[in-house]
Amino acid sequence: MLYMQQGRPTFSGEDVVTMDPKAVIKVEPSGEAKQEKEEEEEEEVEEEEDGGSETCTDSMELDDFVKIILLGAPGVGKTSIIQQFVWTSFDKEYYPTQRKHTYYPTIIRNETYYGLKITDLPCIPYFPIDSYMEWTDFRFYGLRQATAYILVFDLSKANIDSTFQYIKSMRDQILESRAKDIDKVTLMVVGNKLDLMPNLDQVLNKDLHKSSSNHQSLFTTVTSSLNGSQQRVLTPYETCRQNIINLVKKHWRCPYMECSAKYNYKLNLTFKDLMDTIEANCRRAAANKEAAGGARDRRRGGGLLTAFQGRNCDTGRSTEGDSGRNCHIL
């Protein structure tokens, strides 16, 4: 693969600055410093009244977030998926991601608020096998600390096979790197650019048939069986796509979704399915640990990252180049 043949990246610096949210330093101002502090406090109050950048999540620990990382070959639309979901915006121009970007949207599930930490990264040539490789080659990326990985490939005819082979290799490396806690890791495969897929009308009609009533589905099944000899032969593209779906769903046992970031098609459903899978994996991991003799705090939903209740969902923390105030009901 072209992507896997690239050399290991080197970093001359890092834009991300981390800070302990619990660290509090009290300094007693005096004179001009005290006056400047009062003016800053007044400005902060005005920003809060106007819906400014001060947010409810600034006092939260990073462990309170559901950490999601998108991985995929260059140009598959990772950034577009995130920005369409977070900001409901789409940029027609393609700008390769050059550095790490982190987004902090808020979602509501079952009358509970959850904070997401969605990370968009440049294309990585490989997934680090251990903490040392992560520190030397992908410092501050947080690759091995994620709760979930969304593996994105391109559904367009020209790129479907090559971009899927990339995430297939990436999945194998994730399973090897995180073998010790793989039961807590969620993997989801997403095919983007559904709008560029050949025979799109047939795919959409198939989705409509799935949502039809039972008697209509039965009629369709009987008709198809009677006319089996007249069924159309699948094209090479359709065969490739069907093989991918079977591999992901039956062998990998991962959630699979096809979407269009350009038209905001099925993006909310994608993140809803992802959260459903994360919660199910957390409950299963808690049950396995309890069965092995280790008690887990049930109050936190078997390891699901803490939901922050009683918070204003109209705000969301932002970092340099990152998300603003967003709240989604899933």
From TrEMBL:
It comes from Cacopsylla melanoneura. It comes from the Eukaryota. Residues 27-58 are annotated as: Disordered. GO terms for molecular function: GTP binding; GTPase activity. This is Ras-like protein family member 10B. Residues 38-52 have a biased composition (Acidic residues). SMART domains: RAB (SM00175), RAS (SM00173). InterPro entries: P-loop_NTPase, Ras-like_GTPase_Reg, Small_GTPase. Residues 27-37 have a biased composition (Basic and acidic residues). PANTHER family: RAS LIKE FAMILY 10 MEMBER B, RAS LIKE FAMILY 10 MEMBER B-RELATED. PROSITE patterns: RAB, RAS.
